[in-house]
Amino acid sequence: MGKISIQFFQPIASYLEYHEPGGFNLETDIDAPVPFRNVISSLNVNGINVLQQLQSGQFRVTVAINGRQNHLGLDAEVQDGDKVSILPIYGGG
Question: What is the spatial distance between Cα 28 and Cα 8, in angstroms, rounded to a whole number?
Answer without folding.
Answer: 13
